[in-house]
Design goal:
The chain has about 290 residues and is of the alpha/beta class. The chain has 11 helices and 13 strands.
Length: about 290
């Protein structure tokens, strides 16, 4: 026995989860881990890492509670909405500790899910389990991110990039590998409290687009589109099935998304890389896998 409690991990094959799992295996190779996965999950990466898994439905505790041991520690990197069902269920079988990845979206004034996310975080604080809350900002770094790889592929093809509004609103994207390191350090150090895991500093959206053009090796031009008319047009077009942009996404581009990361720096040794470096590394990655 190595004395380390077993980790019950959700989201272990997701973009953030898999990077986190690899770091945990490197830092605590003897620590037992059980991944809770869906029936459709590709488990090849888990097999490669020597991590056993249990197929279940995270919203149905009866499908996994039989595998839980008293003293297990939950590491929840899947959708935070699963935590609503999991935390109360795990209390009854002797689990007292959890690390939950939520989102800096809880701070938004416009995100339609922000109120729900704040409500779930409050449930985590009131839980009999001691829950460490870890909040990533917008994640980038490879072909599995939700935003930046699409922007890179677009500006690699077109000379003009449309920007809604002034492009001066602040953002603080985090590279997926830095995020994973922050989560892994929280687990390894058994850190208590709440931590924002964002990039090293806030950049305006136009700075981010500039860096993206530079990373792909192109000189691009930004076309600034007045916010009011564009928001109105998108508000109508979003009713068309398949239209890729929602009204709220346009409005949120005007909201500053800058976050305090000093507690993470101090207690987790968190040291995210500069965006200019991270986006250049993402471009190299996309070219390596034939996506750019």
């Amino acid at each position: 026995m190595n004395g380390l409690p077993r980790l019950l991990m959700t989201g272990a094959t997701g973009n953030t989860g898999l990077h986190t799992l690899r770091r945990l295996r490197a830092r605590q190779p003897q620590r037992p881990v059980l991944a809770l996965v869906r029936p459709t999950t590709n488990t090849a990466a888990l097999r490669e890492l020597g991590v056993p898994w249990h197929v279940c439905d995270l919203d149905d505790p009866a499908t996994y509670l039989g595998e839980v041991r008293p003293g297990d520690v939950l590491l929840e990197t899947a959708n935070l909405r699963h935590a609503r069902r999991m935390l109360p269920a795990l209390v009854g079988v002797g689990v007292t500790r959890a690390f939950c990845v939520t989102t800096t979206g809880v701070f938004s004034r416009h995100h339609s899910y922000s109120a729900l996310y704040r409500e779930i975080e409050e449930e985590m604080r009131r839980s009999p389990l001691e829950v460490t809350i870890l909040r990533p900002s917008m994640i980038y770094g490879n072909e599995r991110d939700h935003n930046m790889h699409k922007l890179l592929r677009l500006i690699a093809r077109v000379p003009v990039y449309p920007v809604f509004g002034t492009g001066r609103a602040l953002m603080q994207p985090v590279h997926v590998e830095d995020l994973a390191e922050g989560i892994a350090q929280a687990v390894v150090r058994d850190a208590r409290g709440e931590f924002n895991l964002a990039g090293p500093g806030a950049l305006s959206y136009r700075q981010i687009v500039d860096e993206a053009f530079r990373a792909v090796g192109r000189r691009g031009v930004m076309l600034f589109v007045p916010m009011g008319p564009m928001a109105a047009v998108v508000g109508v077009l979003q009713r068309v099935p398949g239209f890729p942009v929602k009204h709220e996404q346009v409005i949120r581009l005007q909201e500053d998304k800058a976050f305090e990361i000093s507690p993470a720096r101090r207690e987790l040794g968190y040291a995210p890389r500069p965006f200019a470096l991270g986006i250049a590394q993402e471009v190299a990655r996309l070219r390596q896998v034939g996506r750019l």
